[in-house]
Structures are given as structure tokens and as C-alpha cells.
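Sample intake sheet
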Amino acid sequence: LQTADGATTARSASRTSLRRAAQCVGRHSKLLRFAGAQRSTHASRSARLVVRADRAEEARKRKEEFSKKMNDMIKAEQRWQRNLKEGLVLSVSAEDGEEMVVSGEYKLLDVRQEDEYESVHVSPCVHVPLFTENTSDEWKDRLKRFGDFIFGAGWWTGSKTMTANKAFPDGVRAELPDENQPVLVVCQTGKNSIMACDLLRNMGYQKVAWVNGGFSSILPGQFERGNMKVEGDLENLQLASVSGVSGALGYTREQAAQRGGRLQGYIRVAALLIVVDVMAYYLLKAFE
């Protein structure tokens, strides 16, 4: 009996020990899981902090890059104005520019983009575009073109995403090798040509003139004297930049400046509204 009681006591002590050991293992496992969860939480927090730091750094770099571009643009505009004020670049009207080319003293340099030049241009002239269309397949350039078209009013004006023509200096030197040759620079509105004048001065050209207002400021018949003539699909140099929905509707400044242009624009807009109204009417009738 004593032996049986001792065995029972031993088994009970063994079960108690096993139960306590299991409880210890359970508590230890919980502690390990808790520690693992804490480490995972700390790791995720650290990762989020790293991501936030990277985003903040990227935002700071973009802001610095934007500020640098704005400062460069301000400095460039100040330099252009200083060139005009000091006479380093001569600002002339379209009429005076025509006289300078007819006299044979100045060579006409057209820095407009390819599509504007092909639509209509003055012959003879030297054509070297200052900007070319951005046709890169990189996703950043594709995204920029999409943004310019949707949010930059490209659909309305027909303007394209452009990039600086790196071959501009070499192209000018190939066509005008003599730096002492006087050059009359022209574009469509005068903005690109004033930039080109600054580049020509930096390249060493001594006599540079700029057509203030570009081809958009000329009158009918100008740049058609002497051996000069207007060639291309269009007959009017003022309308070379007209494109997009605004051009189709005749609702641009250049078209409005033409004889009866404003009235034609109103007529086109009214016709479009009538067509849209008729299409909506028949569309609703089809679903009734």
C-alpha cells in the first residue's frame, strides 16, 4: 500500500512538473512571439521612416531644381533685356527687318520648330530650329507629354512638348560659318528668337538683330520683296502656329486679326454647338 501511494505521489509530481514545464514553455513562446512582433513593428516603423525620409529628400530636390530653373530663367530674361538695352542685340520691327534682308546685309535665320517652318516659311532663309519635338519613349517623357496635352492645354492650342535642340550651335555654324556675317533672327512670336540671339552672341557672332513679335506681327505682303517669297501649305506667315481645337474653331488671336476672322470664329463655334445639339437630340431619341 505504501508502495502504491508512493507511485501515485510520484506520478502526480511528474504530471505537475510536466504541467509547469509546459506552462513555462508556453510563457516563453508568448514572450518570443511578443518580441518578434515588437521587432516586426520596429522594423516596419523604421521602413516607413526611411520611406518618408526618401520622399522628403526627393521633394526637397525637386523644389531646389524648380527654384534653380526659375532663377536661371529670371537671369536669362535679365540678360536678354540687358543685351537689348546695351545694343548687343538690335530689336527691329518686321518692316525694318524686311529692309535689312532685302538690302543684302543681313541673313535671315528662322529658328521655329519643324512643323511651323514646313507649313509656311520665307525663302531664301537659313532654318535651324532652336527646339525640337520630344519623342522620347521613356516613361517620364511620355507622362510629361500626356500632362502637357491634358493639363497644359495642348489639346486646345495644339502645342507640343518640346526639348532644346542640342545641335543648334553646330547647325548655325554649318550654315553661317562667318561670325562677322550680320544675322536677323526670327521665330513665330519672338520668344524663341530672343533666346537664339543670346546664344549667337555667346557663340561669337558680332551683329545680331531680333524681329520683335516674330512672324505673328508682320503685315500681309511683308518679306515678299526682292528675291524673297513665302512658300508652304499656308499663304500667311501669321497662321503658322495656329493648331488644335482653337485653330479648328478659328478662335485664336492670329485668326481674329485676319479680315473677318472674329466673325468666322463665332460662326464656327455656333455651328459646332448646333451639331452637338442635334447629335444629343438623336442620341436621346434612340434610347427612348
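Comment: The CA atoms of residues 81 and 89 lie 9 Å apart. The first helix runs from residue 2 to 85.
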